[in-house]
Amino acid sequence: MADKNHQTGEAEQENLSQLLQIRRDKLKQLQESGNDPFAVTRFVADSDSASIKADFDALEGKEVSVAGRLMSKRGMGKVSFCDLQDKSGRIQLYARKDEMDEEEYNRFKKYDIGDIVGVHGVVFRTQRGEMSVRVVTVTLLSKSLLPLPEKFHGLTSTELRYRQRYVDLIVNPEVKRNFIIRSQFIKHVRDFMDGRGFMEVETPVLNTISGGATARPFVTHHNTLDIDMYMRIATELPLKRLIVGGMDRVYEIGRIFRNEGMDPKHNPEFTTIELYQAYADFNDMMDLFEDLLSSAAQKILGTYQVQWQGEDIDLTPGWPRMPMHEAVKQYCGIDFMSISSDEEAVAAARSIGVELPETADKTWGNALYECFDQRVEGKLIQPTFITMHPVDVSPLAKRSPKDPRLTERFELFICRSEMGNAFSELNDPIDQRQRFQKQVELRDKGDDEAGMMDEDFLTALEYGMPPTGGLGIGIDRCVMLLTGADSIREVILFPTMKPLD
Q: Tens digits of per-residue pLDDT, 403-429?
């Protein structure tokens, strides 16, 4: 059986090599006859497949110009049929030898599936009723030297689809929907923020300090300065400097880089929006987030009801807000608010099989957080704001005036996935220094995700930052929700892939 498969593979490879050579021979013949497709610099298309079909009654009998890729060929005697695929879909081309220049028609017969052509023709309906373009002239605009994969086995391998997104978009045009929705969502975000008086800004991608989140950074080297620099893991600290400077409402949409694991929810580079509003708190951020995401669903999809990861999700505004300790009590049966000591908290966590990471201090706050992370998060399906995170895991959030062990922080969870993270921002420079120092100590113990001391940010806080609400939203996760995609790679045009040897 192995020998038979090997022989079949060799035969397919030989057949492919012959096809490649045939296409190159055709290109050479075209070039030698003065019809080099790569010498064509421009073609003006005044219509496309979707608009022709939508306005067929008005366009029937009129001349149009269309351009796109040949996806199928039929006939090829004195009458030829082809499907042309452009940005908006497909339309049939109908060509007759006696209605075209003979040499041009003969060249057209030799064009291959995958070739890109420009067509001038007349809109009409065939005897079978199919809306088509009757070809008057056709120009080869680019020669496809590789056959499209669907001619052999189709492009169904997800890994190959991600590696060759350009081919994926050609042979699986339905995948374009995800990226159209992505573009619409980002536009909606900008319109939403601009309409509320926020200003879009840009902050550095390269920094001398890794800060603003707990994550392992990518490290690079600046040759002129001869220093190591970090690709940003968040935009938080530069944006809050702008709040100090009096820019009361700012946001940034941009790429974030984290040198961490890859799975269906994580890619090393991803897109976020971070926004900061002076004189606001985390409750204002909850209102804003709920309004932003629910309005996006209504505007883009026309409904609050979406399906994601096998679940029916209801994005109708009015999402529950639950303190983390209440969620742990509800799902795990442990009342952390009745526990006062670190030892008792850690023991309570262990009693339900929750262990703290080796690098984490064995504290009440870390025990509460790990119980939530390991036992509760995976049970949150409908949109739920989890609030009041422990200070141990929230180095940039303001403490709760009701309980100094907790912070005014929330994360939004939908279908077991974190969608965003927000704080009432810490603006006490003395408290902030102490928390930075705690991060430094964790880093010294081997936690390479812990933050660093940022003296310049502390200086900024010492000048005074007003009470501020801040929010970070994962754009990719939101697009996954709106498109129903199970993998982040389905909503990133060019996801990170391990190189092929």
A: 999 999 999 999 999 999 999 999 999
